[in-house]
Amino acid sequence: MAKNLQIGVLSLQGSVREHISMLSNIKNVKPLEVKSLPSLESVDGIILPGGESTTISKLLIDFGLFEPLKQKIKQGLPVWGTCAGMILLAKDVIDENPHLDLMNITVRRNAYGRQINSFTVVEDIPAISEQRIPLIFIRAPWIENAGKDVEVLCYLDKHIVAAKEKNMLVTSFHPELTNCLAVHQYFIEKMIRVGENKK
């Protein structure tokens, strides 16, 4: 029987409740809001949600979580950044703001325009699901450059919108705003449970 996993959602700002709700629908998963060091220490993996990347990065510093989170990820904690979370994880961000400087990608903030330019498409991402997946983009970034160790999972109109590197997964889009659990399940099964089995 699969071990119960405690999956954290960084809960300083952004689409926290939506991720918590999605995780609550997955068997053997217990979601946990992370906004303190003890909660960060107790999770098997963490989601950095969509929201406002500048605000989240400032709150990470204010709550004393910026460096501890960075070190936990460096040490192998599985992490998934959606939209703003992707910006936080990037090594390079066009229109610089404080970020964790971890994943070997260059990200353009608000690449798809303002909130009024939000849109939804349905795409095939074979690495994640056998079924087509709805992708919701809201003031979304894209990846302009990916380093040699980064595995690109999805392009949209020649721009990278999903990728992973070691224990880090990023998506420009918001799976937590859909009814599709595929990306959450991929994060849990392929990035957390696989890591657990290698210990």
TrEMBL record:
InterPro entries: Class_I_gatase-like, PdxT/SNO, PdxT/SNO_CS. The keyword Amino-acid biosynthesis does not apply. GO terms for biological process: L-glutamine catabolic process; pyridoxal phosphate biosynthetic process; pyridoxine metabolic process. Coiled coil: none annotated. It catalyses: aldehydo-D-ribose 5-phosphate + D-glyceraldehyde 3-phosphate + L-glutamine = pyridoxal 5'-phosphate + L-glutamate + phosphate + 3 H2O + H(+); L-glutamine + H2O = L-glutamate + NH4(+). Pathway: Cofactor biosynthesis; pyridoxal 5'-phosphate biosynthesis. The active site is at C83 (nucleophile), H174 (charge relay system), E176 (charge relay system). Keywords: Glutamine amidotransferase, Hydrolase, Lyase, Pyridoxal phosphate. One of its GO terms (cellular component) is glutaminase complex. GO terms for molecular function: glutaminase activity; pyridoxal 5'-phosphate synthase (glutamine hydrolysing) activity. L-glutamine binds at G51, E52, S53, R109, I138, R139. Its EC number is 4.3.3.6, 3.5.1.2. PROSITE patterns: GATASE_TYPE_1, PDXT_SNO_1, PDXT_SNO_2. The keyword Hydrolase applies. It holds the Pfam family SNO. It comes from the Bacteria. In the presence of PdxS, forms a dodecamer of heterodimers. Only shows activity in the heterodimer. Belongs to the glutaminase PdxT/SNO family. Catalyzes the hydrolysis of glutamine to glutamate and ammonia as part of the biosynthesis of pyridoxal 5'-phosphate. The resulting ammonia molecule is channeled to the active site of PdxS. NCBIfam families: PLP_synth_Pdx2 (TIGR03800). This is Pyridoxal 5'-phosphate synthase subunit PdxT.
